[in-house]
Amino acid sequence: MSQSDDFETATKSAKSEVASFDDHSKGLVGRFHHALHTTPALVPLIVLVAAIVIFGLLLGSKFFSPFALTLILQQVQIVGIVAAAQSLVILTAGIDLSVGAIAVISSVIMGQFTFRYGLPPTIAVACGLAVGTAIGALNGWLIARMKLPPFIVTLGMWQIVLAANFLYSANETIRSQDIAENAPLLQLMGAKFNVGGAVFTVGVVFMLLLVLVLAYVLRHTAWGRHVYAVGDDAEAAELSGVNVKKVLISVYALAGLICAFAGWALIGRIGSVSPTSGQLLNIESITAVVIGGISLFGGRGSIMGTFFGALIVGVFTLGLRLLGADAQWTFLLIGALIIAAVAVDQWIRKVAA
């Protein structure tokens, strides 16, 4: 055997150090930058804690009472549920402007099917949930199969569903007293219970469970990873074997179902079935999503961030109201937060570049 073929001797004389790479860390700012990129919910969490501390210092026990803190949860429960649906859509780099209209028409169907047609409340609720899911699935089919832009499809669907809502209901409101007497199941989400002085509702519990379940599904299931992949780069995801059309349709259908549950919670929140309720849910849900750190470009963010975003809006609203400030200050500060959130998202995305 020649010396050049004596591999054992060559390996014995080779260096045994493990390969390493230079650390190009940019100090504290660089590490913070990286933390924000890997944990999108960190920014809204920091803002939420800061807002709670500031209003707590200004208002003291008036703000930190169990009733006041749980009141925030009650106020944001509808927006939080709808924002969870909006989050799924925006993670796929889409948008759904019909979420509010789907929630309202689902609640109207639950009420009308019960009082106009005499169906059992359980059947009426199931019909409302089915209609919401069907509208969402139709949105997804038009976007995935017909290749229509999500903004245009959901803008048109918003107008269609909104008009159908008023035409079908004849702009009739079903009173709270009638619901409580004949169909209390419709108000189930508004049922309250006390825990150590804190007042919770079934709707709040549903919102919390929904956030936790979606957070787990998006992080630990193949479907969740496919949602992120489609939002990051749909073409690359398809080349990797992801059924992009199926994922999009399932996302919009699930969003419709969640919005239908929001419609059920809306009945519990206001007590009645009103076709004019929830008119601002579209904008409020997008606000919570953007403040919560989910990128409008898709593929980055978390449901927990959206939940924190909804809480931020609730904290600002309640805090300013307790301070006696004009309601317009709430809109001003939330508008500034939206712009700041988008600016921070652009800064964070530089890490990936």
Spell out the key features of this protein:
353 residues, mainly alpha, 2 strands
Description:
With 353 residues, the chain is an all-alpha fold. It is built from 16 helices and two strands. The protein has helices at residues 7-13, 27-38, 42-59, 61-64, 66-91, 99-115, 121-144, 150-169, 176-182, 202-220, 222-232, 234-239, 244-270, 281-291, 303-322, 327-349; strands spanning 192-195, 198-201. Strands 1-2 form a two-stranded antiparallel ribbon. It starts with 6 loop residues before the first helix and ends with a helix.
Please provide the ordered H/E string of secondary-structure elements: HHHHHHHHHEEHHHHHHH
**SS-based class:** mainly alpha
In the sheet with the most strands, the strands line up as 1-2
Q: Main beta sheet: strand number and arrangement?
A: 2 strands, antiparallel
Please report which band the strand proportion falls in: under 5%, 5-15%, 15-25%, 25-35%, 35-45% or over 45%. Answer: under 5%
Helix content: over 70%
Low-confidence spans: none
Indicate the overall shape. globular
Count of alpha and pi helical runs: 16
**Tally of extended strands?**
2
First-residue to last-residue Cα separation: 51 Å
Average pLDDT rating: 88
Radius of gyration: 24 Å
